[in-house]
Amino acid sequence: MSKQFQFKLVLLGESAVGKSSLVLRFVKDQFDDYRESTIGAAFLTQTVTLEDQTTVKFEIWDTAGQERYKSLAPMYYRNANCAVVVYDITQSTSLEKAKSWIRELQRQADPNIVIALCGNKLDLAARRQVSEEEAKKYAEEEGLMWGETSAKTGEGVSDIFTSIAKKLPLTAPPSARGGARAGPARTGVDLNKQAVAGQGQGEQCNC
Amino acid sequence: MSDAFDIAQEITRPTEDVKVAIDARSVPRIADEAEKETWSGSDHEPTVPRRKILAVVSHVHADGKHEHGCVFVFTHKPPLVHTIPEDYVVEHAFPIIHGFSISMSQPRQTTIDLSSPPAGSTFTLNQPRTELTVTIDPGEDTPFSPITLQTHDIQGLRRLLDECKRLKEGFATETADDYGFEPFGWVAPYMADHALPPLLSSIPPDLRKLKKPVHTRLSTASAGMPGDDISDVEIIREEWMRRKVEDELFARGEKAGLKIRVGTFNVNGKFPSQDLSAWVRGDVARPPAAFIPPLKELSPLSLGEGQKNPIEETLAAEDPGNGQPPDATSSETRSLSTVSDATTYVNLSVDTQSAETAVSDAPPDVPEDPSDPDMLVLGFQELDLSTEALLYSTKTAREQAWCMAAFAGLGEKAVLYEKLASKQLVGMLLVIIVKKRLRHNFSEIRAVSVGVGIMGIMGNKGATAVRLLFTPTPSPSAANAEPQTRPTALTFVNAHLAAFDEMYEKRNADFQELSKRLVFEPAISVEDQQPPSNGSWYSPAAAPLSIFESDALFWLGDLNYRLTLPDADVRSLVADDQLREVNIRTLRRFDQLASARRTKKAFEDFVEQPITHLPSYRFSAGVLADGMGYDMKRKPAWTDRILHMASKAVTVKQRSYASHATITMSDHRPVSAEFDVEVSVVGLDEYEAFVHRVWRDVSAIEYIEERPRVRVEPTNVDFAKISYKREVTRTIAVVNIGKVPCSFRFVPQGPTADTCPPWLRIHPITGLVLPGEKVDVTLTTQVDEALASRLNVGQAHLEETLVLHTALGRDHFVAVSAEYERTCFATSMSWLVRLPGPVRELQSPDDVLPEDRSVNAPREIMRLVNWLMSNATETDGLFLTPGDEELIRQIRENLDTGGEFDFGAAEKESKVALAFGDTLLQLLDSLSEPVIPPALHPRCAQMTSRDEAFELLDDLPVVNVNVWISLTAFLHFLGQQEACKGRVEQLVAIFTPVLFRDDLTSPTPVSIIGRRNFLRYFIG
C-alpha cells in the first residue's frame, strides 16, 4: 500500500542564483533563459515517488531573492519542513549569502527543518568560484545536505529533491487539521520506517 | 402625432383613469377668445385653430365606491420656438355633475378649414370631411362658461358622450350625505394657476421628484439641437427659486426642532403584558440582555402563528387595561381618539377640548427633559390575528390596550403627552402621540389605509398612514386660527408587507402598490365650501395628496425583508458576540431590503441608517430555538425597519436605531429610531413676499423678445494631472451681460453623447443668472473605482468640450483637458503582473508585457505585505482600525510611481502601520475580480480539510495562487504574534469579504461561514 506524505519546502538564496529555474526544472522539466525576478514568492507543487512506492508531495515556496522582499522570508519559512538554500557556483558572494540564510533558518525556523545547500549553474563550471570542497566542508560542519545542480541541463535537480524526500521524517505525527503546518496527508502507522530527522545529516546526496 | 389617449394618460395623475380621449380643436371663430383668456400677455396669439384633446377622466375614491368624472380639455402650449409637439396643459376641467351637459351637432359648413389649411400643422393631414361640433355646458351652478369644439372622431365622440352619460347618472344617484369628502377635490391639482409663481403651493413637491437631479428632468437636447427651452426654463427656474429660498431664507432664519421617536412592533396578536418603556422611551440605563424570557407564562393556546387566544380575547374585552397600571393613563383615556375607518379625516377639535381640560385640571408638574421626544409615532402590526378581524370592522379594545401600554411605558412623563391621531386597518395600527403643549402646532391631520393582502385588497397586509402639518409657532390665541409660520408636512406610513423569504418580489410590488394607492383624500366639511369662483373653486386643501407630497416621510413597519445567506450562516454570525460588529456589517450586505434599494426595486430614494442591532425576528416561545433564542423554523431577519426621506426644506438627523431585546411578549422585538427634525421658522407672509420678489425678476423670461447674453470665462480649462480618488476643482464663471435673466444648462455634444465626461462633475449643471450677475460653476474631477478601471487601460490624455446652452440663446463651449495618472488600484491582478514597471511609467496601454512574460505576482501587493512584515507585525489594531486618508494617499502614490516608502521618523508610528494595513485592504477590494473568483466560492465553502483546500488552489490562475499563498502566510504569521493573539477570527472575518468579494447580483449567496472556514485552513 502506497503512502502519501505532504511537506512544505522553501527555497532561499541570493537574487539570480537560479531558485525559480531549479523549481521550473523540477516541476515542469523546463528551462527558460529569460526569467523575470520573483516577486514575493511563487507557489508550486510536485510529487516525488520513492522506491518503496511512498509518494511525497512538496508544496514549494519559491521565494524572491531580491533584498526588497527580504522581510517576507520568515512568513514563508515558518513551519517549513525542509529548505533548499541555493548559491551560484560562479559567484562566491552568493555562498556567503546562503550561509547567512542558513544561520537565520537555524535560529528562526522549525528546529527539525531539513536543510539542503545547493550549488547551482553547474553548466558554468568553467567559471567556478566556489569549489566543491569548500561548500561540502561547510555543509558537513553545519550538518546539512549538499549537492550541485544545473537547472539549465537538469543535472542533479531531481536527485536533490528525492534525497530530501528520503531524509524527511516519514513517521511524523499527523498534521493538526486546519494549521499551515505540513505533514503526512494520510494518517496511519508507517511500517516502512524511513530515516527520521537528524539522522544521516551531513551525508552527501547521490549526485 | 401621439395618440390622444396616451397624451391624456401622460398628463393625468396615476390615481385617475382616462376613459375616452379624442382629438379636437377650437372652433376658429370663438377660439381667439378662448386663447386670450388662458394665455393673456402672450405675444404668440395663435392664428390657426390649435389641436386640443377632449377627454373623460374618472377618479374612484379611496373608499372604492364613489366614482366621479370630469371632462378635460387639454390644449397645446403656446407655439413657441422649439416647443415639442406633445406638450399639453389642462385648459378646462368640467365636473360631470347635475347641471352638466354635452351635446354634438353637425354644422352646415363642413369644409371650413379645407380652404385654408394651417401650414405645417400635422393635424391637417388627418383633416376629415365631416366636422362635428361639440358643445359643453358646465351647468349653471358652476363658474365656468360653455365652450364649443370641433372634432372629426365620430366614433370616439359617441363613446365620450356615453361615458359622460354614465358618470352623470352615477352622480345623480348620490347625495351629499353619501360621502364626507369633496367629490371633485382630485381635480384641484390640474387647475393650479399657471401665472402664479411656483413654490407658493401649499402642497410640497413630490419627494421622489426632488431626489432626481434637475438635469435629468429636462428635455432632450444637444449642441446645436435645443430641446424644449420653454419647459426647461420652467424647471430650471423653479429649481433656482427653491435653492434661493433654501439658501437665502431658510438658512438664515430661526430654526425649530422637533424630536420624533418612531417605533415599529409586530405584536403577533398579543395583548401588552410587559413594560414598553425601553421601546417608547429608549431607556438606555438598563443594560440590554440578549434574551429575557417572557414575564408571564403564555397560554399554550396562544402559541404558534396565526392562532388567537380566546381567553385573552375575552379578558381584553372585559378589561381593556389588561393588567396595565391605570393611574398614569386614566386622564389620558378621555383624549384617546380613533380615526374611524369610515372617514379618512378626523376633525380633532373635540379631542383638543378634552386635552385642554385635562391640562388645566391637573397642570403637570413633571419636568421635561431635552431628551424627551416631542412626538411619538408608533406602528403596530398583527394587532389582531383573528380571521374575523379581516372581515368586520376592528374592535378598538386592542388599540386602547396598546395605547395605554405605550403611555404606561412613558412612566411619569405620560402626563406630558396626548394621543393626536391614529389609523387602524385590521392588524395594522399607527398611533401619533404628541406633547400636550405642542398640540396646537399640528393641524390638517389626514389618514388613509390601503390593503394589499389577500386578493390584493385585504387588510392582512398593507399600510396605514397619517399626514399632518407641523407649524413651529402657531397663533397663541386660538386653536383654529390660521398658522402664521410656514407649516411642514410630515407623513408617517406604517406598513406590513408580504411575508416569507421567497416573497421578495411581492414585497417590492407591495411597496410600489402602496406608494401609488396611499393617497390622502381631502379633509373638508361641505358647509365650509367657499362659493365657487374660477381659480379658487378647487383649493389645494381639497386635493388628494400622495404620501410623497410631504416635506418629510417616515416609513416604518414589518417590511418582512429577509437575509439571503443560508440559515446556519445567519445564526452563527449573530451568535458570535466577539465579532458582533463585523458580522452585522457582513449580514447587512445580504439584506433583501438593501438589495431592493440597490437595484431600485423599492425604497430607492429612502434613507436608512445602517443597522447595528441584532435581527428583530423571530422569537417564538415554546418552540425549538437556537442559543440566541431565535426560532429554528424561521431564519432570523431584520423584518422591522424604519426609513425616511426628506426635502431640503427640513433637516432630519437620525439619533438612534435599535431593537429592544427586553420586550419579549411577541415573536418580533420592537424596533425604534429617534430623529431630530429641524425646520425653518419662516412667517407665511415673509415666505410669500420672498417668493414673489424672486419671481418678479424671472417670471416671464421665456416670453421676452430680448435674447439672453452671457459670457463664459475661461473657455479653456486644463486640469493638468488627475488621479484616482483625488478631486481637483476649477471654476468657470457664467456672467450675464444681457438685459434679461438667463437660464442655462449643460448639454451633450451629440444626441448619443453624455453631457459631461465621466471623470468630471459639473455643479450646478443647470442654473439661472440675473442680468449683471455671475454664477460660478465648479468643475471637479472625480475618478472612482469603476472609472479608474477603465481609464487605467486607456489613453492617459483626456479632452472634452462642454456645451453650455442658454435657453432661447446660443451655445457656449468650454474645452477641458487632463492627463490621467494611472493607478494600480481598480485593475485586475492579471494586468498588474504584465506591467514592465511601476504603473505610472506605462506610456501606453499597449506597452504591457505579453502574457507569457508576466511576473509571478503583483509587485504592489507584495510591497505592501513586505512593509507590513517589516514594520507592522506588532501593531495593535492592524486591519481593524481605519487608516488616515492622507497617509493612504501617500502610500498609493508610492505604489503607483514605484517610489520608496519614506515616512522618516514616523515610520514606526502605529498610524502609518494602520494606513498600510488599510491600503492593502483597499487595494484588494478594488481589484476588478477578487483573489478567489466568485465561480469558485461554492466549492471553497465545501472544503472540509486543509489538504482539500490546498488541492483547490490548482484551479486558480497562477497569479491568484501566489497572492493567496503570500497573503495567507502573512496573516498566519500575524496571528501568531503577541499583538494579534486571539485575533485570528477577526482577521478571518475581515479578509473573507475582501478575498472572496461577493457577486451581489447572485440571488443565492455562498455561505460566509464556509468561506471563512476555507480561509482558516490557510491562516488558522
UniProtKB/TrEMBL annotation, chain A:
PROSITE patterns recorded: ARF, RAB, RAS, RHO
GO BP field: protein transport; vesicle organization; vesicle-mediated transport
Family matches, as CDD domains: Rab5_related
Annotated region (Disordered), positions in chain: 172-192
Residue stretches of biased makeup (Low complexity): 173-186
Pfam families in UniProt: Ras
NCBIfam families referenced in this protein's UniProt entry, alphabetically: small_GTP
Descriptive protein name: GTP-binding protein RAB5
Gene source species: Lentinus brumalis
Species classification: Eukaryota, Fungi, Dikarya, Basidiomycota, Agaricomycotina
Automatic annotation (TrEMBL), chain B:
Ranges annotated as biased composition (Polar residues): 327-339
GO BP annotations, alphabetical order: phosphatidylinositol dephosphorylation; signal transduction
PANTHER family hit by this protein: INOSITOL 5-PHOSPHATASE, TYPE II INOSITOL 1,4,5-TRISPHOSPHATE 5-PHOSPHATASE
Key words, A-Z: Cytoplasmic vesicle, Endosome
Stretch list, region Disordered: 315-339, 353-372
Entry annotated with the keyword Mitochondrion: no
Source organism: Polyporus arcularius HHB13444
Keyword Chaperone on entry: no
Protein name, UniProt field: DNase I-like protein
Rho-GAP domain segment(s): 843-1020
Cellular compartments annotated: Cytoplasmic vesicle, Phagosome membrane; Early endosome membrane
GO MF annotations, alphabetized: phosphatidylinositol-4,5-bisphosphate 5-phosphatase activity
Cellular-component GO terms for this entry: early endosome membrane
